[in-house]
Design a protein that fits this description.
Layout: H1 4-18, E1 22-29, E2 34-41, H2 51-65, E3 68-72, E4 85-87, H3 91-106, H4 109-114
Parallel strand pairs: 2-3
Antiparallel strand pairs: 1-2, 1-4
Length: about 130
């Protein structure tokens, strides 16, 4: 049996596969057992109203896991602070983030500075409070 986060991520992937113009971000707040899903529709399409899909899914999560789901959009006062999962956003941002992460993983600060021999002299001074 999967946990609620896996179930929500499967739901998001399924929703995005049907409506691939959506931008979806997700955050789970463990202390409150709350899932926050932000769904942005940049297509301007008002014909595709997915409120029934969202309602049915939130009821199933409430019944199966006793947790709540809050669906938000760009007008909501609630904002996502720490993204656990996102889909539909510009791939360039993800590539840049991964590039920086890989760059810093390649730097080994400990070994880079171990070979440098700096001496301040033979005196050993202690700091006084």
């Amino acid at each position: 049996m999967s946990n609620s986060k896996e179930c929500v991520i499967r739901f998001i992937n399924d929703l995005y596969s049907r409506y691939n113009y959506l931008k979806i971000r997700y955050e789970y707040i463990e202390e409150k057992s709350k899932h926050i899903i932000e769904i942005l529709d940049d297509s301007g399409s008002t014909e595709n109203n997915i409120w029934e899909i969202k309602y049915d899914f939130s009821r199933s999560i409430k019944n199966e896991y006793a947790e709540t789901i809050l669906f938000i959009d760009q007008k909501s006062l609630t904002k996502i602070n720490c993204v656990d999962f996102e889909i539909g956003y510009d791939c360039l941002k993800v590539e840049i983030k991964n590039t920086f992460e890989n760059f810093f993983k390649q730097i080994n600060f400990a070994s880079d500075f171990n070979n440098i021999d700096y001496k301040a002299g033979e005196n050993n001074y202690a700091l006084a409070a």
